[in-house]
Specification:
With 472 residues, the chain is α/β, with parallel strands linked by helices. It contains 18 helices and ten strands. Helix 3 (53-73) packs antiparallel against helix 17, helix 13 (324-356) packs across helix 14 and helix 13 packs antiparallel against helix 17. The longest helix has 33 residues, at 324-356.
Length: 472
Amino acid sequence: MKRLNLLCCCVASLLLLGTAEEAEDNSKVIKRDRSHLESTLKLNEDKPADDFSGVLQRLRKIYHSSIKPLEQSYRYNELRQHEITDGEITSKPMVLFLGPWSVGKSSMINYLLGLDNTPYQLYTGAEPTTSEFTVIMHGPKLKTIEGIVMAADSARSFSPLEKFGQNFLEKLIGIEVPHKLLERVTFVDTPGIIENRKQQERGYPFNDVCQWFIDRADLIFIVFDPTKLDVGLELEMLFRQLKGRESQIRIILNKADSLATQELMRVYGALFWSLAPLINVTEPPRVYVSSFWPQDYHPDTHRDLFLKEEISLLEDLNQVIENRMENKIAFIRQHAIRVRIHALLVDRYLQTYKDKMTFFSDGELVFRDIVEDPDKFFIFKSILAKTNVSKFDLPNREAYKDFFGINPITSFKLLSQQCSYMGGCFLEKIEKAITRELPDLLGSIGLGKKPNVLSCDVTGCGETPKNRYRKP
């Protein structure tokens, strides 16, 4: 018994000694100068933030009066699964962090916000540490918000996340931090990708949740480190979901100061070799090579290069923040164009169905023939010919098989019937928003010369239906 007590005392002494040595080592760690970060992100400026409340109010009015009626009438949300809320219209720019586990995503957020060794810092470690989707946003004081509360608050932009189920909401957490940078931007930290873990084991549709955040992100940082360059099935699926968002993707090779020059060149080449099959664009994505954490760069490394890379990334982030209103208006306009194309296609399907129906026809068989082979009835080609829409903007034909499987064609009205004496025509109103109202709103926030009203030859307005209820 005495020997056992003596052994326990020795172990405890060693643990205390190790803790003391670790604390002493931490006190000797040289911290990196943050002056470049504060100046680039304008954290020291006392100038009040730009007030865009009037522009946001007008943007919200345009959406509700000119875009949403057509969107709801033709059930666009059931095709794209993207419902725009007032919270999303008024939300701050979102920066999304993706990548394998333990590559430094949480450490990078801690560094950008200066949260290290504070009660606010995100937990980091060599093992997989982040198992939740963590939203870091501004608040008057430090506060943690559960996912079910975030989804229930209609004033926030996260209420649509309820559709992913309670298991996911338990893995969603919000953290409010009183930080000046978060007054202008919101960060989203995601669970690290672990290739040997099946999606079903997470208990919620991980890829669908990622897609929801990808669709709403203004900037997407995909973080790697020198030890995790391999691409597995889950990461490959993630890059498929990023298709069409290449302009918002930034690749980060983190922890670069842990390598010698020759090794860094080999790792950089290996990273491009791994990602080349996944990014099918002519221009390669921007890659930042540095080490994003508060400790100083390792000695005998390319300190100047890493610092320049870091400043370039901060300028990229600041550019997104500065252009937040322009990006928001452009996003709503792009959404309106997609809604318009969807409405024109449904209208063409319905018109073709009515033309082919006779007194003795079986309506179900007639429409099945149309939806199985729309090219035989020139549905998509007629849209291209009459509306001057790019073929690259057209939705997938297969998507309409599922869409009409849920929504019977007879439940829709023709566009020419979507008019009223007081409200006008739905298509006419969305065309006005696309060609005049949204460009004018963009010009009102200081983009230079106010844009002219665009013609249908430029924008592809298509045929404006005649309002039967309005007197000539």
